[in-house]
Amino acid sequence: MGAAALGGPLTTRDATRTLAAPAPVAQREPLAARAPMPGSVGVLGGTFDPIHIGHLAAAEEVREALGLERVLFVPAGIPPHKPGGLISAPHHRLAMVELAIAGNPAFEVSRVELERTGPSYTVDTLDALSPGRHLTLILSAESFRGLPSWHEAERILALARIAIVPRGGLAPPGKGWLEEHFPGVKARIVELDAPRLRLSATDIRARVAAGRSIRYLVPDAVIGYIEDHDLYRDETWRKN
């Protein structure tokens, strides 16, 4: 599933950054929390290298606003949008996610992409997770803009509702863009005004490499893991 929806594109391609950003097209959900609907599951994928509070805050916002029973965090195995890119070993990224979500009983981690060979395409992940569940794929506005270039994008919309959360000040594309690329699917798109935390895993790694603090940017348990395993500190990461 690629880099985190909130720290980078979720799946097969880098998000398109050149599209105009007219008024949002999707439904804006009320702030009031909804009672959980049985079988409703949010899916938040990414490299999580590392997972940070932006991921957690967005997942909690979607869970509460849409009445989801739980949210699955899906660390990517081989992110298709980062061929040959520098990325921490899967066991490190999985461990950091497990530590970050440990205090929330509605959050779970899925190893579905780590246990599958080949690129981590979102459509394959949703297909594997969909039996018996009502899925909501959580994407940043930035990632949603790149959706037309993803592997089997139309099937993604058939398998899951899309919940869009803001990132980097970008709004989802307008009605014209949506009708051009995905006609007749407006009901499958929900826009949420999640906490606007301008964080990225790239910036966090850079801070670690520079010896700077990441306190309050990632959970304390994740900071401890990064320190214990000396992640992001060697020359390779500094150059990257």
Concise synopsis of the structure shown:
By secondary structure, the protein is of the alpha/beta class. It has helices at 53-66, 90-101, 122-129, 141-145, 153-159, 175-181, 201-209, 220-228, 235-239; strands at residues 27-28, 37-46, 68-75, 107-109, 134-140, 160-165, 189-191.
Key descriptive features of the protein:
240 residues, alpha/beta, Rossmann fold, 7-stranded parallel β-sheet, 9 helices, 32% helix, 16% strand
Number of domains: 1
* Series of secondary-structure elements, N-terminal to C-terminal: EEHEHEHEHHEHEHHH
Q: From the alpha carbons, calculate the radius of gyration and give it in angstroms.
A: 17 Å
Helical fraction: 25-40%
Strand order of the largest sheet: 1-7-6-5-2-3-4
Number of helices: 9
Q: Uncertain segments of ≥5 residues (pLDDT<50)?
A: 7-27
Query: Any idea what the CATH superfamily is called?
Result: HUPs
Sheet with the most strands?
7 strands, parallel
Average pLDDT level: 84
The count of β-strands is 7
Gap between N and C termini, in Å?
A: 21 Å
CATH class (first level) name: Alpha Beta
| CATH topology tier name | Rossmann fold
How would the global form be characterised?
globular
CATH architecture: 3-Layer(aba) Sandwich
Structure classification:
alpha/beta
Portion in strands = 15-25%
